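Example record

The entry below shows one chain as it appears in the dataset: sequence first, then structure tokens.
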Amino acid sequence: MAAFAALFLFLSAAVSAAAAFQGISLISLLSSLTPTANPAWFSDSNTFAFGFRETEDGYAVCIFFGSIKERTVVWTANTDNPVVPDDVVLVLTEDGLVLQKSGTEDILSRIDNSSQPIASAAMLDNGNFVLYNANASVIWQSFDYPTDSLLPGQRLPPGGMLLSRAAKTDLKTGIFRLWMQYDANLVLYYMYGLDTPIDAYYSFETWGMGNNVSLNLENDGRLGLYNGSVLQMSLTAGGNPIVGAIYLVRLDWDGILRLYNRSLEKEDNWKSLWSVTEDKCLPKGLCGINSYCTNTDGDAECRCLPGFGIARDGEWSAGCTSDLRVDCRDKNQTRGYEMTSVLNVTWEDNYYSASRGTAQEHCKQGCLQDCICIVALFKDGECRKQKLPLSYGRFSPNATDMAFVRVNSLNYIHPGITGQRQRLTDVQKNVLLVSIWLKFCNLYYVYHSAGVSLGILGLLMSVIIYYVRRQRGWCNQSQANKQSLDKFVLNHGYMAPKRYSYNEIKRITKSFTEKLGQGGYGVVYKGKLPDGQLVAVKVLKNTHDNVEEFVNEVASISRTSHVNIVNLLGFCYERNKKALVYEFMPNKSLDKFIHKSQSADPNCSLGWRKMYEIAVGVAQGLEYLHRGCNTRIVHFDIKPQNILLDEDFCPKISDFGLAKLCVKKQSMISMLGTRGTIGYIAPEVFSRNFGVVSHKSDVYSYGIMLLRMAETGTNVETKSSQSSEHYFLEEIYEHVVVQNEKIHALMTEEEEEVVRKMLMVGFWCTQTAPLDRPSMNKVVDMLQGNLQSIQIPPMPFLLSSPKPQFSCSLPVIVETYATPYGLINHYQPRGTLP
């Protein structure tokens, strides 16, 4: 009887699965595609296809229209690096949809992220590619992971994004994103900015509609915002023909959201029914730094500031650069420079000096006489000297803004700059070669008389030629490097860090006698400058040979100025010898005090008030890197070893900007470009399935560090003898944060509050989804605010795992909570929370 019942259930499941698949052509396990022989799986009506789509550089795995001539792409796999060679195979396996090297079982990448065994797949007629399990349940579908487009029936859920392409035919991720925020506001952002109004260039101003609002595209072309199944707002009218027509919403490569339609006739063309704007200069970042956008005959055109040139040909988003040399030693700046005007262009204001009640001419002359000033913005009697680079330039005929830009009027070079070796002229090169040949002939005569074979002389001649060519290459490279370094020093005037020779570095460090530490970027030595100031000299290893990249990174580090950022005093660049000179930190790094149980120094202990002040200082330094300095910087390696402490235990963040200076990093990992230290890396840095890599990745690393700082001082008794090497975060969360048990019997009430605050902020910062984490300015507010104002965070999914139990006792304040802190730092109307 039991066997009969089991057979009945099995047959019922089979019938149900067959019914679910009725009318759908299934793709069976081990089915495969290749770029040339069998490139795609088509839907039943051939409207859509899933498979390889040829690009300019190779092939990409895409979903595209199969029945129209354009073969328009609506979804792309692995948009960070979509292009694959022609010798790959796409195979549907039980473990996933994988790309393999042809003729091998080596997996190059995986298309899906399903966690259940796969039984079959299907390309549906609505453009959705679906994976099924054995019960005919959908376990993965492309509709849940849109790239730059939405099809009818597809939705962009709360927290979802559309990411533009890099170019019209380049399927890599571009520089714009459409974000369906959790506060129900639909906003367009510049990809590499922050989640703030400065970097948003269009808001639909739809906040307050609920916490489950999604963007949906209907079959009749209606694009609307829905709270569940209830239409809240229509962005487009809808009511268009359904039969024989198709609609598509796409965030185009130029940053504009558009609705397209066309008939399914093969020879028809796409038509734009609606766009969020007709102003093609509206998207911020379309024209990069030191350039501005102007509408010319309906198209966007980028132009550089006077005296600047495009950084990379054909890539305006990379911005413009200048080789202007400004020598601050020249007291008469008008002798070599003049100011030129740019009218009716607005910029993001990033000033370092401002004065009101100023005339245009005074503003112009004031910038000219200030050797640091390259650009000054003038509007309504106010003159603001700007930090470079300038961002988000946009021409508007109605704008009253005026920019004064310093240019080199006389091709002026200060006579004190000497010592540059000249390139050999063609005549000099020929004379050199002739002299070498004559020497060779003379050697040949001498050695031939001595009975030396011609073969040996040939070898000798080859060595001479190789040596001459190598020396010439070195001279040319050294010449170019020196010019780049001279330009850097002159452009930054007295604000530039001092440039040291390698011999000076050896003298400062007494030939590298006192080693302070060693990390992934190099070895740190103690040194002393001629004026007696102690310094820390970091000798870099495995660095790039590109002097421009090195100089750009040194420039970004040197432009930072904050009490919680380590101060760069100088640098060295001589061929493969590179070093950075920092202020000396006598109390070394924070890990010495966090991991005191591993320290040989019994005095490595800090009070809770000082530990709390260090936590706040690091948060303020990170906030400055993310928002306050003129070059926004994401650190990517926040950890106790990179937090240095001065004589007063004031924390200073170090090693930012070095990720681009160095190729290989000990104690660092590299997984498809991942940066960071194991244990501190945010989940989205490992896998883009968790979200977009941004400043929120630093927030996660800071949160881990904060939890370890707080856990170090809890001194919690554990029931397990295996607990010494573990941070029982799940138990700490349950007992300390939720149940409010006492942390330590000897702690004062003030210390209890400090530790609890650090723990709660740490758990907020380590939320798995980047969107759920607070920004660093919110972290500072929470740390400096009242404990009762901090809502209890959810337990971060990635920090929870089975671990030994422990007990502790601590008084708890149990609160209910609603919206996390991390959700209020989005585009908001004036008058609401920032």
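Notes for this example: The chain has six domains: 24-144, 149-274, 291-408, 426-492, 497-583, 591-823. The two ends are 68 Å apart (CA to CA).
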